[in-house]
Amino acid sequence: MSRSLVPNLEVRRGLRLERLRELPVRGEVLAAVGSKVQAGDVVARAYLPGDLHIVRVAEKLGIEPFEVARGLKVKVGDPITKGQLLCEHAGLFGLFKSRCVAESEGEVEFFMEKTGHIGVREKARPVELKAYVSGQVVKVEPEKSVTVQCYGAFIQGVFGVGGERLGEIKLLPVAPDQVLAPEHVPADAAGKILVGGCRPSLETLQSAAQAGVQGLVTGSIDDYALAGYLGYDLGIALTGDEDVPMTLIVTEGFGLIPIAARVLEVLGSFEGSQASLNGATQVRAGAIRPEVIVCHNDESIMDEDAGGAGSLGFRLGSRVRIVRVPYFGKLGEVVDLPDGVERIESGAMARVLRAKLDEGQVVTVPRANVELV
Amino acid sequence: MQTEASKLQTVLVTDCGSTTTKALLFEKTPAGWRQTCRGEAPTTVEAPVADVTVGAMNAFAEVQELSGRQILDARAGVGSHPFLEQGGGRPGGIDLYLSTSSAGGGLQMVVAGVVKEMTTESAQRAALGAGAIIMDAISADDGREDYERIQRIRHLRPDIVLLSGGVDGGSRSHVIETAEILLAAAPRPRFGDTLKLPVIYAGNCQAAAEVSELLSKIAQVAVVENVRPTLDRENLGPAREAIHEFFLTHVMSHSPGYGKLLKWTPLPVMPTPAAVGNVVRTFAEGRGLNVLCADIGGATTDVFSVFKNASGERVFNRTVSANLGMSYSIANVLVETGSAAISRWLCYEIEDSELRDRLRNKMIRPTSIPQTREDLWLEQAVCREALALSLQHHRSLAVGLSGVQQRRGIADIFSQKKNRVDLVDMMELDLVIGSGGVLSHAPERLSAALMMLDGFALEGVTQIAVDSIFMMPHLGALAAMHPLAAQEVFEHDCLVNIGHAIVPVWSSGGSGAGGEVAQVFLDGRAVAAVRRSDVKCVPLERGRVYRLRVEARNGAVDLGRGAGKAWEGEIEGGCVGLILDGRNRPIEMPSAGAAHAFQADLFRGVGLL
After folding, report:
1. Given CB atoms, is A8 within the 8 Å cutoff of chain B?
2. Minimal Cα–Cα distance from B406 to chain A, Å?
3. Does the complex come out with an ipTM higher than 0.90?
4. Could you give the CA distance from residue A132 to residue A165 in angstroms, rounded to a whole number?
5. Tens of pLDDT along B13-64?
């Protein structure tokens, strides 16, 4: 495999991005092409008809349907509030009045004279769609969708759980290889996206979620903590819809692997900025990786390797990260790219490269186990 | 491109797997058709590339480098194929390019029904039986709002939707409402524009026409018999078969860039299992053998079998276990079988959390490969469990094996009972073939044999072979154009005879003095004994034909010819020879604490440690 195009994960300070925002049902698009929007702005809205409650007045009051019609206190189309009188029946000689009141708020949709039933439709509920990223609306599909374009920092994780969230970037004051414990969750964590460290315990995840943290971006996670956080064991990497209170994104993988310096460097330079993140991951053909986007919309902020690492392939001097034992998580520089295949420790023949690790050791690794950083 | 078989001289074939794209060059030599060069590259279905043809081009380039033959045309225009065509006095080039594909990976489905505990549950069982992962089960009574269901379906990007609901002749309105939710969601296929989302309708037959018309705007709809024709009757077979067929023909081969790949070859791109199945079937029927073959990939494991049925005809079966594999689906094997089941095959101690983390890392970085021996053994342990699970799946699904319909009493409505005749008889198996990276590229052929011996729990006397460099998909594609060439390469370059497994099976009291359960004779000479709990190898001269006789030590021991009877026949020496396995069946394993030491002894005994 001389041409290993391993899935490098983007860590960029400046990149143009587009995000499609689509209503689940037809509704109203609130932003026009060219308009500027903030990530938290509602850009489209749809109204879902409320539930219909049938109030069986005749049965409730023990009267005939025609008597319901006589005592009716509302008419079709009337808005009603909870507890509002719907029907009153005078009873014997007007002495024993019986009443039927509304159990929910809404609007009278129908009255059936034959049955004495009143239909109360709850208020239509809006479904609001936020912009998710701050930028400019570049496309609108009336009643359906909005496409927002932004320019910002873009960091992909390798795996995540939990859906879209917004928050303020806050770097944890810990070393990249620090195992995150509950005490590392700061007192002012509510509404923040915490970044740093690695392998948070289940208790740490729960503490952060309880503190109102919107997202945690960390180096790694262990499988048991993940299963505990999700409440089940994940079979394949298809995530994003989990009912979890905080989105979790890991940048390196499973186990004890420090968060990458480049992620800390890029997100650190935007500390205090608002960011959007999404843990949705689909590792299969047409893969989706989790993301953090900081929409600074400052096009003067660019990366030195604007072409993207993935398009280059390995070269002497390429900065790489090893993604498999025995050197999992180690960083280094390519010092040799042998042409042929070589026998590796497992006994298999593979295309390899030699990398000088940051610790100084030169190691031979299969090219398939190396990512460009 | 040349499409006349008799004029072909050089054919390039790729198999675009979910993890790796393998390109093979086949050439007509003075000695006949041969496989002459191989190149591979990671399949490029993930951003930033997200185009399967890029991985294919990388594999072509490797073939070009290694063979020294110019096969790519630097001047090829956009929109045309990239190959240098042979002829015109130029050196190099190829006559024909063919491909198979399973780049799309596993099968993830959404099922929908009307009543959660009735039709939806039947639909779920049908999908699970077909090997799918169920991403969500939508029901009219699942407590969600329509918009929530719509959002969910959109986000999930299912490969196939199975829609059920209503008993035949019952109310149509609810199932039509469920179809309307699907219509509103208009779920897009996972990638590309070459595939319309497949929807299988298996609900109230009287609503079939309306549902079909409604959904045909957004999907390719197949109508099959109702999974729940009446309240007390479940009919999962037709839906299961339709899922299987759709997956095979429409889902697993598709991937980003698939449309471009189609334009490079004059023949349709075959789904990988279809290609391998053709090869297995042709070989087994031609030789008159009972054959079992497994192709274990990154996302799926495909199992093929040819066995004699009660009337003596050989029946071919093919199943695709959509979420049992060695990379994308490796963690699913872990979830299905548990870490203890995997760990018991290891010859070294490993912390449970370490084992789980390593498999998860393979799941999220599916193209990485084991570098150390320990890591390789871990993948081989997973392979054993994946093979066992996929064989179980094959036995439950194979056409002709299962009663497709079953009457279910009210008490059985919420449970699934099996009622089938098992055609796959391991004692009757003549040959097992392993294919796929973990088996074909195992550094020692013996390791591949042991993975199949353990994973399939072979019984009696069975020949074990492996696809030498994983070329069965390619040969299946080549056979579609030039069957003779494919056959020549298959016999000469593809099938590696590893040896024969001898596995006595006994109920109780099978072992005699010294734990001996069977005696092995070659050409009339006693060469070894099979001892209880022991696994060992007896080397043979490769290619030499021997007269093998295996005698049971007592009447309780079965070698495939009936309890107490001897097995006798001719065998050809393989690269390992005989593998004598005295672990009985189900495989006797020591308790968890002693499993690693037992495996270490076993590995040492056969020379792997």
Report:
1. yes
2. 30
3. no
4. 8
5. 999 988 889 999 999 999 999 999 999 888 887 766 778 899 999 999 989 9
